[in-house]
Amino acid sequence: MHDVNANRAAQTFAPLTASAVLVNPVGLHARPSVKLTQLAKGFTAKIEIALAAEGPWTDAKSPVKVMRVKAPQGATLHFRVNGPDGEAALAAMLALVHDGFGEA
Question: Which Pfam family, an example, fits this chain (predicted)?
C-alpha cells in the first residue's frame, strides 16, 4: 500500500529567507516590478516579498501585487521562498536586486 502522507512529507521544503537593499534609483516601481515578476515566474517555488521581515508578504509572481509594494530606493526587500528550486530562485531574486534591476 502506498502511503500518501509519506510522499507529501518527502516533498516538503524548508522556507528560505533573505533580504537585499534596493539600489536602483526608482526603487520597486513599474519596470523593476515587471522584471521581478517575470524572473519569479520562471521558478516553481513559491516566492514572496515584503518590506519587513515579519510581512505582510506579497506574491512575487503577481505584477499588480508587486507594483503595490512601491518600495523606494534604499528600502530593504525581504524574500521568502519555498519549493524544489527555492535556493536557485532566492539566489536569482537577490542577484536581480543587487544588480539594480539592470538600471543602477
Answer: PTS-HPr
Could you state, in order of their start, the residue ranges of all structural domains in the chain?
A: 2-102
Cell 521544503 -> residue:
13
Residue matched to cell numbers 535556493: 87
User: If you ran DSSP here, which 8-state letter would residue 50 be given?
Assistant: E
**Edge-to-edge order in the sheet of strand 46-50:** 16-21, 76-82, 46-50, 58-59
Q: CATH assignment of 2-102, given 3.40.1110.10, 3.30.1340.10, 1.10.3630.10, 3.20.20.210?
A: 3.30.1340.10
In Å, the largest CA–CA distance within the chain is 58
Confirm if 39 and 96 have CB atoms less than 8 A apart. yes
**Catalytic residue IDs:** 29
pTM of model > 0.70: yes
